[in-house]
Amino acid sequence: MASEGPRRTRVLRVAADGAGPGDAAAIAEAAGLLRAGRLVAFPTETVYGLGADATSAAAVEGIFAAKQRPYSDPLIVHLAAQDEIGRVAREVPALAHRLAERFWPGPLTLILPRAEAIPPIVAAGGPTVGVRVPAHPVARKLIAAAGVPVAAPSANRFMHTSPTTAEHVLADLDGRIDCLLDAGPCPVGVESTVLDVTVSPPRILRPGGVTLEALRSVAPEIVGPIETPVASSEGERDVGAHGKRPPARAPGQMARHYAPRTRLVVYDAAGERGLAAVRDELLAARARGERVGALLPEEEARALAAELDGLAVATLGPAGDLAAHTRRLYAALRELDALGLDVIVAHTFGREGLALALADRLRRAAGGHLRAVPE
Ligand code: TXA
Ligand code: MG
Prior knowledge:
18% strand; binds threonylcarbamoyladenylate; binds magnesium ion; alpha/beta; 4-stranded parallel β-sheet; 10-stranded mixed β-sheet; single chain
């Protein structure tokens, strides 16, 4: 069983496709550790996960201890293939099969009725379980070799920024986990979309790598996530697009999450309006004597850096490339966070496609609210 306490974290380097020389042996070793109830961090296409045998309550307990995560926050169970779904879900609605057909392997987590084989600790004691088949070849090979479903939250300490590289994992968990498979940076960069198909209509609990638009192309009745209120720049609170606060019990959906230590201010406007709001905030903060940094697309970062001498910037890839923005988001936040600044300023990118997940993660990283920008 995985116990808390000092230990060596064994780091095994593998190629991004898990097919390099020696990779099969490394993956087999990590799989053996999983089978033995140990903790293994591994790459997925979204973020690095911290894995344990999902059928072993003792092994899963180790995840909560290593992350210092409360038991009230349920874990996602990862499978090597769709046809294993019956091992973890008691019942699979026809819609879930259709969505799995279309989006697995990939960044979609389906909430389904939990099977007996999955102990309550995985699911915060609830009747459901989150399930996905990750697309990353190393993740799939690892889970297949382990031969057990793998429970895995993001491989960061609770409330910290999610890891998209092996270095990020070690920064949070070195010495607290048994093994880390390092396959380089994660291609998607934000977590999976969590879709509850046990309710009618099905509802997105967390936007992520599979867009609402793509899900609706299969099931138009799917409802988008509830946004928490947006704070205006004057400090009063406006109510978000859906006009409702999230339900009291939305497991794991605490407003402050994915958070850097540095104060983060995010303006809820895209393009020119967003950039102008960021510029104004940076100028105001500098006038107060604060050390400031900006999190922006490359072109915007260049323009502001030319204007504001010595401005710290981290870039999100080319403007308009939302996939580059998600891929870069957490690493860029960590880069700025390491500089010991007083404030980091950013803006959102609308709500279309991956911009919905970006707005959600930026809001959580900013402590739960976005600042409104007057038209
Ligand atoms: O992309 C991802 O989903 C990554 C990689 C490693 O697969 N995993 C991940 O896990 O983000 P985690 O634990 O950091 O976030 C999982 C979230 C929980 O916080 C919770 O909001 C939701 O998924 N979730 C899991 N099981 C659930 C359930 N039974 N009911 C409702 N929400 C659930
Ligand atoms: Mg997480």
